[in-house]
Amino acid sequence: MSESQVYDEVENHSTVREVCANGLRMETSAVEAKLDEGNIQEAESSLREGLSLNFEEARALLGRLEYQRGNLDSAVRVFDGIDLHAAIQRLQPSIAEKRSSRRSRSNESVTTVSQHATGLLLEAIYLKVKSLQKLGMIAEAAQECKSILDAVETIFQSGIPDVQVENKLQETVSKAVELLPELWRQKAFALFLLYSGVEANPPSLASQVDDSYVPKNNIEEAILLLMILFKKFHLGKMKWDPSVMEHLIYAFSICGQASALASQIEEILPGVVNRCDRWNTLALSYSAAGRNKVALDLLRKSLHKHERPDDLLGLLLAARICSEDSLLAFEGVGYARRAVANAIGQDEHLKGVGLRMLGHCLRKQAKVASSDTERSHLQSEALKSFNEAIAFERDNPDILIELGVQYAEQRNSNAALGCAKQFIDVTGGSLLKGWRLLALVLSAQQRYSEAEVVTDAALDETAKWEQGPLLKMKAKLKIAQLMPMDAIETYRFLLALLQAQRKSFGSPGSHMVQVEDDNEFEVWLDLAKLYSRLSQWKDAEICLEKAEAFKPYSAAIMHTEGKI
Amino acid sequence: MSLIDDEDNTPFETSNTSDLDLKLQSSIETLTQILGPIPSLSSSQDSSLTLLHDTNLTQTISTHLKLPNSGAGNNNLCRWLYDTFQSSHPDLQLVVLSFLPIIAGLYLPRAVLRATSLAGFEAILLALYAHETTSRDGQPITVSIPDLSNSSLYHESKAPIKNKAVELNMTIVSPSLEPHGTVRSTRRARIVGVALELYYKKIALMPISSKIEFCKFCLVWATGKEDGDGEDSVGKKALSGDQEEASSSSNGEHGVDGSKEKREMKEELSEEKSWRRVPLPWELLQPALRILGHCLLGPNRTNKELTDAALAATKSLHARALQDVDSQAILATGSILRLGTMASETSPELDHTEIRDYMNPVISL
Q1: Residues of chain A neighbouring B282 (CB-CB closer than 8 A)
Q2: What pTM was computed for the model?
């Protein structure tokens, strides 16, 4: 219902509008007439006389009357007459008094009176806030609204002991808590920054104090605001708003900030969101941040038989995490089977994934099998699962490559070859791993020249920085074809690439550099072996020295050294 | 290699009125040579901004773009789009950008099928990529998460200010850009992703129809299908649009062209029935999700056709993320899916903060 409609309705009932207090009743027409003339004081005194009220009570009633009549300006003027600060001062001692005379008989009545009076006062201020809000004076409204919460804190410094909180007081406070963030507009502005697609100017540097955080683009500013809102929830300054959590999840995950997201979710107090939802969201965040062990622990909780043992998302994620570790693979098989069993009805489209995860876990389990029979049994089970999965998701490239790898591990290179080719077809050659699998399978069949053609084709489709693994493969293929000089040439390319990469990325000690060090170490070692096979001992020794610079105490180096 | 031979790094903001008018005129002339007369354009002499929101023109270009072989290197419309973008006329560039959803939308599934030549689409995509590379100087885009124990514009921290530099959580949202002269298949997703980043930058200026197209193609990418039952599908929409246009045109010759196009369209429809789902690595999914977030929760959220399309696309991407068991994608798609559903379920004008007995004529203390 729109505001004007509400006013119309109230207007229509104006004949019966009346006020009542202290068991007395009076019609408001005379008071309204005085108010319409702008004579607030006269209206106030006629109310005080008619209903035997004190000044604040009369003001509260008058303001309420004006608010309901839609005379917002007048309502604000009426409420302005109430001195909140003085009233708080007056209300406080009554509490202190009460506490000092804890055992006196008047105990209860004093508290009740003060609660009632406070409730009345705060409701009046709240109506002032609403009037200001409707008048579009948002900043003033926010200030007044905050003063309500501050007043509650001051008046009830030590809480409200052993008596029930009065309804009206409770309601006013919770409404104020709900309204304040709206008035602050932080949420609305955060959402504007996040979704409008308009690049707002970042806050100017001049307005910043030293050491304070300055967001440099929309999404950083949105995240800052959402984090502040989130913190206000935890401090109880704001009513919980589930949408803020979702916006936060969106903003953080879009930026790849999964671990920061996890720490935000960790801060949510118990009882605010469903614990299984919380565990699952946390598990997703941790697994996205690469902390799979933590994620799995959380999933074990949420998949417990007393919680949500059939939750598909949890089961699939748990199975995926387990499939990456052969010691967990057995546990993963259980999750995957449960997922397959539960992928029914609306979730039928997830049956294929369940089967794929099952295949993964079985394959991993086969690696630690205690006997050959067990191993071959598990491997054929894995193959069966992958083949069933493909019936559900015919064009899912992930299954194709996994099936291909599985076939390759079982030495069924023709089937593996088929899968690799199909994978490249379905992905349009856009994923490097397809090219690599094809080349590996071909070289396993000792079709080296064909493997080299594939590697060259892959190099054509790859940007410079990602060519490292392909070049390495190409060098090995050259060695296999007994073309050591060509292999050396390829290694030379690879070394140049690695060194250029080192120059353009990363500071020493970073993860990237570590990977490159490992790569370069292997290249030098391979070169040393190559030269030693060519009986070029000097060159071999130089290469070994280079390799030693990366890993001084490597067994592989000593082995090669020994051979030389 | 730089496809943009412009000294100015931000051609979207260059202006030289008379020069621009000339560019606009010749651009429209070339377009009418390619597409035949466009009713609404013949009379209008005004600015190119009307071009961006001209439904007739948008409809005609969309229809042509959806023809089979439309992405070929010798396709005149692709050439026009490429030349127009390179003209550095800021508003004309926006016109080209508004067709990115269709171009990228068709390009990725077709590239997977490797059925037709796509050099025309690729030239446009590379031009957009190069533009973005130039405008951000190849630099990566990073995001840092603040530490709330340090004050900011919006809050004050009671904790004593630390003297040492604050350790920020920094991630790279979009890595640095290297120039690309051709589309290598392993870089395809990245090039389209960067073009989408450019689209997102200008999304506030894009017409709603363009955003709706994007949502529909997201669904195609995720599922390899158009709409579930085939009703209201991308191709059929174009077909009906074409019919309308052909019937509204009084020009006999154009009518013939129209029916020929219709036939081709039907052929195309059967060809594109065999869509395949597209690999969706994060570098492509991330900008797509930013656009969807805008469509679903941004300033146009009152447009039901748009939010419905965006919600359907988000649902399909979420299902896809679950199938891929990709945690990050599940988080991102799941959150906007829930927000989108929340938004469509709650009635908008309910003030929870209003006092309880607001309408009660009896006021009591």
Answers
A1: 256
A2: 0.75
